[in-house]
Amino acid sequence: MYSRHKQHFLGLFSIPRVEWKSISDENADLTQFSLTRLIFFAAVPAASFLIGVTQVGWSLSGTEFHLVAMNTAFFVAMTFYALIVFSTLLMAYFTFIIERSVATETSFERCLLFVTYTATPMYMAGLVGFVPIVWLCIMVLMVSVIYSLYLLYIGIPIYMNIPEGRSFMVVTSIITAGLCMMVCFNIVTVIILSRVAV
After folding, report:
1. Burial track 65-104 (b if 16+ CB lie within 10 A, e otherwise)
2. Could you tell me the CA-to-CA distances from 166 to 119, 149, 162 in Å, in that order?
């Protein structure tokens, strides 16, 4: 399973169209595979944040850093981790509902795997948490969101076997749901991070 994780991870960043086809054709325990991947990759930004704010400190400009107590940082990191997992599961459910209206064969497990793979750039962007400078985090996150949208756009017709003419409608619907999710995620994140600033 580790080799498949590594292969798909590298493929999504180098040959995404080919890798989406490989992921689509793969026969595996989708529930175990998708949950394992989600649990592992959702931990990347949470763990990076925990280490960054306790060892380096957070900063708005990159000139003045503020260390955070371990107990506070651990609580925030665990809450952040739970929020990432919950958001991914909810996004997979939205995708399942959307896909069910246009595709003949679908399942929540396949949608969860699809959403998790699509969000891989955003999980990896969490590595910037090791140096938690706010403006840098925002820039890295924006780039990762753009690439995730690219993976979504090219992955829908390949992974879900939807004609490209209809895939645009599906992509638009998923992006709309994702934007609503991102707004809610940002609001909750601000509330969580307010514990660090005090």
Report:
1. beebeeeebeebbebbbebbbebbeebbebbbebbeebee
2. 22, 17, 7
Q: How far is CA 93 from the centre of its chain?
A: 14
For Cα atoms 116, 46, 196, give the angle at the middle one, nearest 5 degrees.
140
For helices 108-118 and 134-159, give the axis angle rounded to 10 degrees.
Answer: 140
Question: What DSSP element (H or E) covers 3?
Answer: helix 2-14
pLDDT tens for 76-130 read 899 889 989 999 999 999 989 888 877 666 788 888 888 999 999 999 999 999 9
Residue 184 three-state SS:
helix
- pTM summary value: 0.86
Burial class (CB in 10 A: 0-12, 13-18, 19+), 4: middle
Q: How many CB atoms lie within 10 A of CB 22?
A: 15
- Cβ of 107: how many Cβ atoms within 10 Å? 13
Over the stretch 122-168, which tens digit does the pLDDT of each residue have? Answer: 999 999 999 988 889 889 989 999 999 999 989 888 888 877 677 77
Which pair of structure tokens corresponds to residue 180? 């609503």
